[in-house]
Amino acid sequence: MIDRVLEQQKAIAQVLSSDRKTRHLSLTWQDVDVLEAINKSLSPLVEFTDALSGEKYVSVSFFKPTLHLFNNSLLAVQEDDTDLTKSIKKKILDYLNDKYDDAATQELLDMASALDPRFKLKYVSEDNRGSIEASLTTEMRRVMTLMENAPLETAAVPADDTEDAAAAAPKKKKKGLGSFFKATVDQAAEPQPALEKDKAIALELQSYLQAVPLDAEEDPLKWWRESRMFYPRLSILARKYLCIPATSSSSERVFSTGGNIVTCLRSSLKPDHVNRLVFLAKNL
User: Fold this and answer.
1) CB 22 within 8 A of CB 16
2) Largest Cα–Cα distance in the chain?
3) Nearest to residue 57, comparing CAs of 244, 265, 280, 259?
4) Which of 7, 33, 112, 167 gives 20 to 30 Å between its CA and that of 180?
C-alpha cells in the first residue's frame, strides 16, 4: 500500500489540491520521508512472506537460512539509512530473534536445516554444530533400535493353497557360467564381521555431511527419496522434520475454504461430504 502511494504521489497531490476541502490532506515532505523509510524497511520482507506462506511445499528447514539472511543482508543497517529506517530494521530483527530464541525452538530449526540437503550445517552456528551432530546421532541410534526390533510381517498361507502355490512355482532355470564363479567366491570368502552400530551411524552421518549440497532450487524430498538407500536412518529423520510446514498459512486457507462451504444455508452437510468438498476445492 505504501509503495503504491509513493508511486502515485504526484497524482494524489494533484487530486487533493484541486479541492479546498481535501487540500490539507496532501502529503508533506515529512510524510513522504516517513513513508519512504517504512517502505525501504519492509519491502525486502514482501517476497519472503509470499514464499513462506505459499501453497507449494515449504518446510521449516527454510527458517534458519531466512533468519540468517535477514540478520546479515536484507535487514542489515546501511550507510544511507535514515534513523527511522534503522530503528524499524532493529525492531524487526529484535522481534524475530527473540521469538525464536528459545532453546527447544532453536534445536528444532537447526535439526530441520541440518536434514535439508540444500543447507545441512551451513546455517547452524559453530557453537551448536557439535550438539546438533550429537542429537542426530542419538536419534539415528534410536531409529536403528526400532528397525531391529520391528516385527517381521508374515502372511499365513492356507493349507488348501499349498498345492496351487507349488504348481504355480516357476520352473528351475539353467545355471549360467557366472553362477559357478559366484558360488566359488561365496564359499571361499570368509564371513565379514558386522560393523558396530555406532560406527555405522557415524559413517552414515559423515557421508551425508560431506556430500555435495543440493541446489537451492531442487526438491529435498525428491533427493531423499532417491538417496534413502544410502542413508536409511537419516532418511527416516528427514521425513520426521521436513514434513513440518514453515507457516500455518496453508492450513488457515483450508479453514477459510471450509467456512465458505459450510454456511448457514448448508449447515446440514455431513462431515464426509464437507471433507470431499474441501478436498475438491483445494485440488481442482
Assistant:
1) yes
2) 103
3) 244
4) 167
DSSP summary character for residue 159? G
Alpha-helix residue ranges (DSSP H) falling in 18-78: 29-52, 63-69
Q: Model-level pTM?
A: 0.69
Cα gap 131→142, rounded to integer Å: 16
Q: Which three-class secondary structure string do you get for the chain?
A: CHHHHHHCHHHHHHHHHCCCCCHHHCCCHHHHHHHHHHHHHHHHHHHHHHHHCCCCCCEHHHHHHHHHHHHHHHCCCCCCCCHHHHHHHHHHHHHHHHHCCCHHHHHHHHHHHHCCCCCCCCCCCHHHHHHHHHHHHHHHHHHHHHHHHCCCCCCCCCHHHHHHHHHHCCCCCCCCHHHHHHHHHHHHCCCCCCCCHHHHHHHHHHHHHHCCCCCCCCCHHHHHHHHCCCCHHHHHHHHHHCCCECCCHHHHHHHHHHHHHCCHHHCCCCHHHHHHHHHHHHHC
* Mean pLDDT (whole number) for 252-262: 88
pLDDT tens-digit series, residues 170-225: 566 666 666 665 554 444 444 444 457 888 888 999 999 999 999 988 888 899 99
